[in-house]
Amino acid sequence: MKRLIQILTQKWFISAIGITALIILIWFGGPYLGIGDSRPLGSPFNRLLALLAVIVVWGLNNFRLRFKATQANSEMIDNLISAPPAPSETAPDVSAEEVALLRERFEEALKHLKHTSLQGRLFGKQYLYELPWYIIIGPPGCGKTTLLENSGLEFPLDEYKVDKKISGVGGTRNCDWWFTNEAVLLDTAGRYTTQDSNAEADSGAWLGFLELLQKQRPRRPLNGIIVAISAEDILTKTQQERDLHAHTIRQRIQEVYTHLGIRVPIYFLLTKLDLVAGFMEFYDDLGKEQRAQVWGITFPQDTPQQPADVLQLFSGEFDALVKSLNSRQLWRMYQERDLARRSLINGFPQQIAGIKPLLEDFLQKIFSPSRYEQRPLLRGVYFTSGTQQGSPIDRVMGSLAGSLGLNLQALPSYQGQSRNYFITRIFKDILFKESEMAGSNVRYEKQRLWLERAAYAGTIGITLVMILIWSASFTRSELKINKLENKIENYNKAKNNLQPQPRIDEIINTLQAAKDISRIYETEQDTSGWQMGMGSYQNYKLGNAAENAYHRTQQQLLLPYIKQSLEYKMRDTSQEPEELRRLLSVYLMLGNPETLDARTFRPWVTSSWQQQLADQPNKQARLTAHLDELLKTELTPQTLDQRLMDRTQRIVCQIPLTRQIYARLKQQADADIRVYNLARLSKQMDKQVGRQIKKILTSSTESATGADTSASMPAGPISAGSISSDTEIPGFYTYDGYHTVLNKEGERTTKLTIAENRTICEQNREELERADPERLLRDVRARYFDDYVDQWNNFLATIELNKIRNINGAVNTLNVLSARESPLEAFVRAIAEQTILQRAQLKGLLDRFDLGKKLTEPNNPVEQAFLPLHKLLQSEDDQPSDLQDLHQQLQDLYAYITDISEASDQTTAAFEAAVARMTQNNKDAIRKLRSSARRLPSPLARIVESAATQSWGAVLGSARAYINTVWRSSVLREYQTSLENRYPVYKKGRQQTALVDFGRFFGASGSIDNFINTYLTAFVDTRRWRQRSVDGRSLGLSAEAMLQIQRAARIRKMYFQDGGQLPAVRFRLKPIYLDAGVKRFFLELNGQQLSYQHGPQRTTKLEWPGIDDNNRVRLIFERFGAGRFSIVKDGPWAWFKLLDSSTIGRTRSADQIQVTFSTAGLKARYQIQASSITNPFTNRELAKFRCPKRL
Predict the structure, then answer these.
(1) Cα dihedral sign for 318, 324, 327, 331?
(2) DSSP class of residue 535?
(3) Which of 304, 58, 88 is nearest to 201 (CA)?
(4) 647-680: per-residue pLDDT in tens?
(5) Could you give the 3-state DSSP secondary structure of residue 1076?
(6) Residue 1105, preceding bond cis, omega within 30 degrees?
(7) What is the C-alpha separation between 1063 and 828, in angstroms, rounded?
(8) pLDDT at residue 1155, as a whole number
(9) Are 1153 and 1166 in contact (CB under 8 A)?
(10) Alpha carbons 1014 and 96: distance in angstroms, whole number
(11) Which of 268, 445, 691, 1100 registers the highest number of CB atoms within 10 A of its CB?
(12) Residue limits of the Type VI secretion system component TssM1 N-terminal domain (predicted)?
C-alpha cells in the first residue's frame, strides 16, 4: 500500500492523468468546438494531429524537467568541487584556509556522486541536491561520528570502495560528510559547537560552512539539526560546564536560524547511554530488531497558531519512560542469575530517573523561548548507545558513598562485543520521514511564490481570455441586443409623449433616450474586430443605426427648439438693439448652416439656457452636451420667419455701426479669451512669488465702491474659488484681447459689419456706402481704451492686503513683502504686462537687467492712465527705483517687527515699542513706510499703507495682551481677594472690606493708581479720559474698561482726601429736626460724639473713619420720662452702613445732603456738609465699580 501511494503521488503520474484527461476531452469534445462558423477539430484527422501535438509537448516538457534536474545536480556538485565560496563576510580571514580544507575533504566523493543513482524515487533517480540534508552538532567526543557509523543507513560510496565518511573516527577536527541513499548527513567538528580551541578560526569556519549550505541549497539549506550530547557530559560535568555547553549549542542553533533564514526541527540525542550503570545489563537480552527501535520522547508537532510548549511535556514523558523501565525491571531481575548484574539491573531505572533533573535543566537552557530569539523547534529527545567504551557511571551509589564518606569502587568497563542501541529507526522512521517539516528560506520562497503566482495567473488569465472570447460571440451580442431593445422602448415612450409644441423637459428626455441607444455601441466603435468577430456580434450595423437615429432626433427636436427660442426673443420688443443684432446673426446661421460660426452660435445658445434654466444646472449640462454633439454633424437648414427677420433688420439697422463693431469684437473676445482675475495675475509671476502673493492679498468688492475696509474682515486669500465675478476683467480688456481681437480682427470685423449692414439695411444704403472703415475703427478703439481703463481701475480698487491679526501674522506678511524676489515688484510687473499694450515698450520696461531705460511717451490712453504704476519700475542715473526704495523700507519694518517677535517676551517687547511710539515722535520704520505709501499710486499705496498700519495695530494688540496679563495678575487678583463680594463695593455683601485693603487698592499709589501711571499713561489721556492714538490706531481698551478706570480715579478723590493710602473723609453735621418726644439725641462715631437737646443748631466737625479703632457707630434716642432707643452699627464701614439704612434727602447744593435717622417711630434729621463737591455720601461710584476681567 505504501509503495502504491508513492507511485500515485509522483509528479509524472499526476501529469500523465492530466494529459489523459485532455486527450479524452479533445477527442470527444473537439467536434463541438467552434470559432465562428469553423470547426477546426471536427475531422478525426485534425483531432489526431491535435492529440499528437499534446503528447509531443508533454514529452518534451518531461524531458526538459529531467534535463534541468540533471543539470542542477551536476552544477551543484561542480560548484562544491571547483568553485568554493569565499569565507563569510562575518568570518575572520584566519578561517579562510580551513573553509577551503572543508571542500577538499569531500572533493573525491562528490566526483563519484555526480553520476551515482540515489534510490528513493520510483522509475528514476533522486539527485543529491534533492535529498534532505541534516547537520549534527555537539561538543567534541560526544559520539556524533559513532552515531552515524552505527546508524544502519546505506552509503552509495561503498560500491566505489570509498570511505563512507570524509574524515576519521572519534573527535574529528573537520566536518565529515556522510552521503546515504536517503539523506546527506553533515557531522560538524565538535569545536564548531564549543569554539574553544581557536574561537576566531572556529567561528569563521562555522559561519563559512553555513554560507556554503545557503549558496548550494538556497530554498531549504537544511532539513533538520541533530544535537548530540553524551550521558558522560550530563553526569560528570559541573553545573557551570553544562551551562556553557547549553549556551554554545543554543548559540549555534540561533546562528543556523539567522544565517540560513529558516526554522528547522531539532532532534536531541543523548548518546553513550551505556555509561549509565546497569544499561548493558538491563538491555542485554534485546535482539537486533529490538535494539533498532526508538527509545525516547517525540513531542507533538507545533503550529504557528498553537505552538507546543514541549519543555512542559518533557517531565511527564520522561516519567513515563522511567515507568516503562520499572515495569520491565522485575522480569530482567528474574532472568539474571548473577547477583552483581542483578543489582545493576535493579538500580538502572533509578539511575535513569536521576538523569532527569540534569537533563531537564540542560534542555531548558537550550530550548526555552526568548522574545529576542526565534523559538527553537524541538521535535524530540532520544537515548542511544553506539559503542560500549569506558567505565559506567553509578550516580546513585556515588551519591550514597559521598554522603557516607566512603570511596566508591569504579565499575568495570564492558568487555563484550559492541552493539548499537536505539539508533537505526531514529533516522529512518523519524528524521527522514519529517524531512519536509523544515521551513524554507523566506526570501527565496517569496521570490518563488511570486513566480508561481505569476505563472498561475498568466495561465488562468489566458484561459479566461480565451473562454471570454469564445463566449463573446453569442453572450455579449445577446446582452447588447437586449439592452438595445430596452433603450428603444424607452425612446419610443419618450417620443410618443411629445406635445405638438414640446417642452424643454420632453426634449431633454427624448434626446437622452436617443443618446442612450447610441451609447450602447459607441464605446466599442474603435474595438478591434478580432475581439467581437468570432460570433454574431452586430456592433457596426446596430451601432451606426443607433448613432444615425440620435442625430436625426437632434435635427428634429433640438434645432427647431433653438430656432423657436431665437424667434421668441426677437419678438420681445424690450430687447436692446445690440442684442437683437446678435440674435439676428445667430438666427441667420440656422437658415444657412454653411455660414454657422460655432464660436458665435454656441455661446449664445448656452447663455440662453443658463438664463432659462438658472436653477437647473443638470439640465443645462445635458443640453450643452447634446448641442456639442449636434455641432459635430451637418445641420439641416431651418425655415426662417421672413417677416420677423425684416422687422428685426429694421431695428438693427438703427444701431450705430460703431456699437455693432464693438459688440461683435467683445462677443468674440468673450468666447475666445478667459477672464482676468487675481488668480491669473498670480500665475503670471514666478511660481514661488505667485504662491506668496496668494498668501497676503485679498479681493474685496467693498474696496471698489470706496468703502472703508480697514476694520472689515478680508474676503480671503487669493484663489480661483474666493474671487467673485465682480473682481473679474473680461478677456477683451487684456493684452491678449487687445492684440488677438481688436488689433487682429478689428479691421476685418469692421468691414464685415459694414457689408452685412449694406445687405440687410436697404434704407441706410447711401450712408453705408459713405462709411469709412478707418474712422469707425478709430471710434471703436477710443471707446475700447476708455472701457479698458475703467475695467482695470475697478479691478485694482478691489485689491487689498489680507488682515494681520497678530505679531506673528505681521512677521509672515512682511516677510513676503520684503522678500528678495519682491512680490510687489512682480505684482506691478504683472499689471504692466496688461496695461502696456505696445510689445517693444513692454519688453524694454520689464527686462530685469534693463531697468535703467526710461519710458517713452505713452502710445494710448491705457498706458497714460497707468503711467504712475509703470514709472515705479524705472530708474534714472543709476538711482534706485521707487520700488527699490520701498523694498528697503519694507525690510526695515520687517526687521522692526521681527525684533519684537523674537524677543524673549514678545508681549513685553511689544509694550515697550508701543510706549516708545506713543510718547516719542521719531521717524521709525512704520512712519517712514506710511509716508512713502502716500506718494505711491493705487493700489500699491493702499497695500503698503495697510501693511504699516496693520503692523502697528499688531504691536498695539500684543501690547494690550501684555497689559491685560499684568492687570489680571495684579489688579484683578487683588480685587477678587480683598474687595469682591464685600461691602461697600457690593452693597449686599455680608463682609466689609478692611480699610487697609481698600486703601491698598483705591488709594494714592495703590494698585489701580500705580497701574494707570505705569501702564496706561502713555495710551490714555487721564485729564479727559480718552485713548491716545498714533497713525489712527489706539490701544483699543474697551469702553467698559475705560469707564471703570475713570470711576476708580473718582473714588480715590472722594475717599482719600488726604492723598494717603488710608481713606479719610471729613464732613460736618448740623441738626435740622428732632421729634418733640425725644429729650436728647446722641451720636458716637469711632470715638467722636455729638449730642442735641432741642437747643441751638450748631455744626459739629467729624471725620471718617474716626479717632478710635473700635469700628462702631451708635445712635441713642432718649425720650422724656423713661425709655432709650439706640441703633448700633459695627465694622470699619459702620457709618456708611448707618447711612444706607437711613433716609437720604438731596439739597440744591452738591456738597450737602439731609439724613433722617429713625427708630421706634422717633426721628432726627441732620444736614451733612461734605468737604468737597465730590461727595461720597451722594455719589454711587463705589457701588457701580466692577473690576473688569480684561481691559
Answers:
(1) negative
(2) T
(3) 88
(4) 877 777 778 888 888 888 888 888 788 887 777 7
(5) coil
(6) yes
(7) 66
(8) 93
(9) no
(10) 86
(11) 268
(12) 200-458
Predicted confidence (pLDDT) at residue 524 exceeds the cutoff of 60: no
If we measure between CA atoms, which residue out of 195, 186, 252, 192 comes closest to residue 221? 186
Give residue 998's identity as a one-letter amino acid code.
F
Residues 6+ apart with CB under 8 A from 419: 291, 388
Cβ pair 271, 228 in contact under 8 A: yes
The CA distance from 657 to 749, in Å, is 11
Nearest to 956 by CA among 919, 912, 924: 912
What's the rounded Cα separation, in Å, for the pair 745 and 70?
Answer: 83
Which position has the grid cell 513515563?
320
CB–CB of 793/869 below 8 Å?
no
Nearest-angstrom CA–CA distance, 90 and 88? 5
pLDDT higher than threshold 80 for residue 718: no
Residue 373 confidence (pLDDT): 82
**Which distant-in-sequence residues (6+ apart) come within 8 Å of 105 by Cβ?**
166, 167, 174, 175, 176, 177
Q: How far apart are CA 444 and CA 324, in angstroms?
A: 46
As given in the structure block, the three cell numbers for residue 1115 are 445712635
Range of 119-123, 700-704, 1143-1147 with top mean pLDDT: 1143-1147
**Cis ω on the peptide bond leading into residue 939 (within 30° of 0)?**
yes
pLDDT of amino acid 114: 59
CA neighbor of 1094 nearest in space, from 1108, 1081, 1110, 1113: 1081
63 pLDDT more than 70: yes
Number of H helices, E strands in the chain: 49, 26
- DSSP annotation of 1037: -
Q: Give CA–CA dist 1038/502, Å, rounded.
A: 67
Distant-in-sequence, close-in-space partners of 599: CB < 8 Å, separation ≥ 6: 668, 671, 672
Q: Looking at residue 208, what is its pLDDT?
A: 75
- Helical (H) or strand (E) element with 466: helix 442-472
* Grid coordinates of 933: 505709501
Higher pLDDT, 1046 or 528: 1046
89 pLDDT band, cuts 50/70/90, is: very low
The chain-wide mean pLDDT, for the chain, equals: 79
Residues 6+ apart with CB under 8 A from 1120: 1077, 1078, 1079
**DSSP states of 880-943:** PPHHHHHHHHHHHHHHHHHHHHTSSSHHHHHHHHHHHHHH-----HHHHHHHHHTTSPTTHHHH
DSSP string, 537-573: --HHHHHHHHHHHHHHHIIIIIHHHHHHHHHHHHH-T
Query: Which pLDDT band holds residue 159 (cuts at 50, 70, 90)?
Result: low
pLDDT of residue 98: 58
Alpha carbons 959 and 1169: distance in angstroms, whole number: 45
Cell readout for 843 is: 519688453
Residue 174 has a pLDDT of 53
The length of the chain, given as a count of residues: 1191
d(CA 431, CA 269): 12
Element (H, E) at 1011: helix 1007-1011
Name the nearest CA neighbour of 805 among 742, 711, 894: 711
Count the Cβ atoms, other than its own, within 10 Å of residue 16: 13
- Vertex 335: Cα angle to 332 and 338 (nearest 5): 100
Could you give the CA distance from residue 963 to residue 1011 in angstroms, rounded to a whole number? Answer: 9
**What is the rounded average pLDDT of the residues 895-899?**
89
- Residue 1033 has φ and ψ, to the nearest 5°, of -125, 135
Exposed e or buried b for every residue in 199-211, given b needs 16+ CB within 10 A?
eebbbbbbbbbbb
What is the rounded CA–CA span in Å between residue 979 and residue 986?
8
Q: Give the count of beta carbons closer than 10 Å to the beta carbon of residue 485.
A: 10
Looking at residue 85, its pLDDT comes to 45
Q: pTM here?
A: 0.50
Taking Cα atoms as reference points, which of 228, 234, 264 lies closest to residue 138? 228
> Minimal CA–CA distance to 1029: which of 885, 917, 1166, 941?
917
